[in-house]
Amino acid sequence: MSQGEAAGRGTAKSQDQGWAWMVLLAAVLLQGLTLGFPCCIGVFFTDLQHEFQASNSQTSWFPSIMVAVLHGGGPLCSILVKRFGCRFVVMLGGLLSGLGMVSSSFCKSISQLYLTAGLITGLGSCFSFQAGVTVLGYYFVRWRTLANAVASTGVSLGFTLWPLLSQYLLDEMGWRNTFLIFGGILLNCCVCGAIMRPIQLASGSLPQSAKPEEEPGSRAEEAQLSNGASPHHPMLQQHTRRTKCFQVLQKYLAFDIFCQNKGYQIYTIGVAWMMMGFALPHVYLVPYAIHNEVEERKAALLISIIGFINIFIRPFTGLLSGHRVFTGRRIYLFSLAVLLCGLSNFICIISAEFSVLILYCVILSIAMSGVGALTFQVLMDVVEMDRFSSALGLFTILESITLLIAPPLTGLLVDITSDFHYVFYNSSFFLITAALFMGLSFCALEKKNKLREASKAHLDNPSRYQHSKTSTEPKAENQ
């Protein structure tokens, strides 16, 4: 038995009470330390450019790699959780995150930052975040929805506090010492992981993903063995390897769902396209403000304003979208939030004064709250829950690809034109087109399904009428 399975066996006394609330507190801190951390990178953007004599495009690669790996490492994290358990993976993630940032403080070139702060810290943050979310499914049953909503406030806290702390430490110590201190702070993920001790659950209360499943290729292998084939036969071993590879791809990257489920196909493509513009303000807002002679402390405060408003708006948006009025219509609410994100960028194009930028941050944070609260809820609406983890794997990987390439490409455009307005033009273009694509496509899909059901009902009714008519004819003859 794997350690991941052993983490879910025994007594259920800790569920929804007692130690579960300590685990929830640890999950809040984890999300603040991991998901909230990349938002502060914009504070160091100008200093890193001057230090390494790098262009906007070159500098933006390192936060892009960090965010892409943070989102795209989900399938690898799932494999490790199943093999070693959530506690180990969270602590491993904390160790990698701390090591990555400590190593970054000694970097001599911007390309070294891609490996240390980008890849290593991003992968560590991915392990800590996703394993921390998974463990909530073991500790909470009755209050699982509330626990996930409370845990997501950690992201908003991270958005609020990381930029302020970053600007203070940067002014006092410089970016190298700040990265060194960040390495120590991220090691606290190990402390959060230590709190998430393995829980033993009552039989039948395991989450869907934790229940053992029969491997699709097992029956075929048994049939071959029963026909006299040796388990060490080269052909059989090659077939077994192919079968296991296919099982892993099917479990963590649901290509079959993508090809068969039109709703999942539209939503995945729409969100991947949306991410081309969604991350740009987080990377470039602070450099844009500094470029337009806004004081550095005030520029860092802009990201904190977005996070602070998110603390209050995101739970409200989650509760509102859970109302039965929006059942089956959350995709339109999500598209509206994405559209508002895109339109809000035009405020920055009009003016770069600090008061105008505050107004932009308020509107953007309200729209972002809707996007953040609804992303996974909509995915649950379009995919069956027994295949949700597989659908999520492909979803996050496609999302991470666009998150990786969008900031450097936009940075290259800024380098060529020397105009930061193209950041917000680009962001608006991708967000608005993604919102229109998802909203109109789902509307067309819904109409198509209604027409199909109506035509099916129309075809069924005459047959039932004909059946009732023929069944009454013998009675009339007998009479």
UniProtKB/TrEMBL annotation:
Membrane-spanning intervals of the chain: 21-45, 61-81, 88-106, 112-139, 146-165, 177-196, 266-287, 299-319, 331-351, 357-379, 391-410, 422-445
Every Major facilitator superfamily (MFS) profile domain range: 20-451
GO cellular component: basolateral plasma membrane
InterPro entries: MFS, MFS_dom, MFS_trans_sf, Proton-linked_MCT
PANTHER family: MONOCARBOXYLATE TRANSPORTER (PTHR11360), MONOCARBOXYLATE TRANSPORTER 6 (PTHR11360:SF21)
Gene: Slc16a5
Record's subcellular location: Membrane
UniProt xrefs under Pfam families: MFS_1 (PF07690)
GO molecular function: monocarboxylic acid transmembrane transporter activity
Keyword Transmembrane helix included in the entry's annotation: yes
Membrane topology classification: Multi-pass membrane protein
Keywords: Membrane, Transmembrane, Transmembrane helix
Descriptive protein name: MOT6 protein
Start-end of Basic and acidic residues biased regions: 211-222, 470-479
Keyword Cytoplasm among UniProt keywords: no
Region entry Disordered, spans: 206-235, 455-479
